[in-house]
Write a structure and sequence with these properties.
By secondary structure, the chain is of the alpha/beta class. 31% of the residues lie in helices and 24% in strands.
Length: 174
């Protein structure tokens, strides 16, 4: 079986058993980036890391990749937020991801998430490791934060609203 066939079989299995497990950002039929996530039990290779996930039912963001031409424009954050919104909508309470922590190394050609990126987006170290620490985000804190922000904005009577999603051309709909 080819790598592509293995990936398609994995995608069918996860989608059938758990549901949607990723997002693709595109513009004019060109793929700009993607994020892939599912419970860590669907990623058996995650158990080979020193900071391996303990609970196989907790979702793991396994990769986030942005094409070179689309980098440094905020698309990684848009894809991460779309992923987090999906997980909150499913009732998930937390999400994990391995952070790439090697100082001075470039993530340009790797689909791994950089530890600084995860820290900027609210993740904390759950299981330390010098190369690939397991990071965790409590999704319940996002719900409370968004609810509080919307309440504050409403009380100020500004016509501001927290955007629910990125422009439609960036995120593939379901």
């Amino acid at each position: 079986m080819s790598d592509e066939e293995l990936q398609r079989a994995w995608l069918r299995r996860v989608t059938d058993e758990w549901g949607d497990c990723g997002r693709v950002a595109y513009e004019d039929d060109e793929i700009l980036g993607f994020v892939k996530y599912a419970p860590s039990g669907y990623f058996p290779q995650s158990q080979t890391f020193l900071a391996a996930p303990v609970d196989p039912t907790v979702p793991l963001i396994s990769c986030l990749h942005i094409s070179p031409d689309a980098r440094h424009r905020g698309l990684g954050t848009v894809l991460l937020r779309a992923c987090l919104r999906d997980l909150v909508g499913r009732g998930e309470r937390r999400v994990e991801a391995f952070g790439f922590a090697t100082p001075g190394a470039s993530l340009e050609d790797m689909p791994m998430l950089g530890m600084p990126f995860l820290l900027r987006n609210g993740f904390v170290v759950s299981r330390p490791d010098p190369l690939y620490p397991l990071m965790r985000l409590d999704l319940r804190s996002l719900i409370l934060w968004q609810d509080n922000l919307e309440a504050v904005l409403e009380s100020l009577r500004f016509p501001l609203r927290v955007p629910k999603q990125a422009p439609a051309s960036w995120i593939e709909g379901r």
